[in-house]
Amino acid sequence: MADPVIGTARAAITGLKEAIKVGKEFEEVTQEIADLGKAELQARAAARRKAAFKNPETHFVEATKEFHRFKEVEAIKAEMYGEIERKWGKLGLQEVEKIEKRMAEDYKRMYTEDGLDKEKLFRVKFYCFLAAAVIVAFLWYNGIIRELSIIAYGE
């Protein structure tokens, strides 16, 4: 069974080759490189989560497998950079690196390590707090909290 991260990386390089052939816009090509970077981040996070539930005696084997996956992703990334350099030269590489850096900063600003959207997560926390406040206010207004404290502690 093929590793899904490597499959994603191979799909990304195939997409890049097709993009260069058809002459896609430069931003779209760098988006594919960023997707490869996201796949690498997701692979690292998944490997950390998976390793946390494994027997400590097997950590070396899992770390070795993770190392091999990352080396293969790095090789694919190097191949992609080579194609960009051949097509657009050093300036193209600099532009890709600048866009990749910007995208990584945007991703870090918008998402948690597990890939959750920070804004949506904040909204869920806020609504949960609001619902709890409404429930407590209702219980307080109706005297239920007082009754429960009398039952628990006496008068």
Q: How many helix segments?
A: 5
Biggest β-sheet: count, sense, barrel? none
Distance between the termini: 67 Å
Quaternary structure classification: single chain
- Portion of residues in helices? over 70%
| Annotation, overall tally of beta strands | 0
Average predicted local confidence, pLDDT: 77
Count of domains: 2
The secondary-structure class comes to mainly alpha
Strand portion, in percent? under 5%
- String of helices and strands: HHHHH
Determine Rg (CA atoms, Å). 25 Å
Unreliable spans are none
Which descriptor suits the 3D outline? elongated
Question: What is this structure's SSE topology?
Answer:
Layout: H1 4-22, H2 26-52, H3 59-110, H4 118-141, H5 144-153
Helix pairs in contact: 1-2, 1-3, 2-3
Descriptive notes:
By secondary structure, the chain is mainly alpha-helical. The chain has two domains: 4-113, no CATH class; 117-155. It is 85% helix and 0% strand. The chain has five helices and no strands. The protein is elongated and about 80 Å long.
Features:
5 helices; elongated; mainly alpha
Quick description:
The chain is mainly α.
